[in-house]
Sequence to fold (175 residues):
Amino acid sequence: MSKYSEEFKLQIVLEYIDKHISPEQQKKRYGISPSQTRQWIAQYELNGKFTEPTRHFSGEFKLKVLNYQQEHHLSDQATALIFGITNQGTVCAWRKKYLTGGTEALLQKQGRQSKMPKKSLIPNKPREEWSKDEELAYLRMENEFLKKYLALVQEDEKKKQQQEKDKEKSKLSEN
Fold:
């Protein structure tokens, strides 16, 4: 979801086209940066609509964009407009990645590393065929699980005992 509605963007663009209100004047009126206004105007003039932010692009798409930009000698802004990329800085970042790391850098997934282990600690074979390391890892995991389970059970018991004490106190205070 974008910060500004389609109707608001259209109002800004039409004020520019019909009433000749410059992006600088609109900044004073609405507090929107002139570069943002110019981007909306360019999007509207090129496509007749506004581009919604896209969060994920495939590596193949990134390569296609960079190749097109190189072949047609386009700026980042023009390339972003043609391919419907809302932020021209995205194209610049892709180019830098490509120049420093090559194709592999563009194909890598972005984001945080998963905290979950990629490989299961439990081997996918009969227990008789486990190596000593696999069995040891399994037993350690099982031990940790049991410790955590026991701690939760003890915590529940303490809560129940406290609730019973509170009930007894409330009964005594009523009498």
Remarks:
- The longest helix spans residues 132-174.
- The two ends are 61 Å apart (CA to CA).
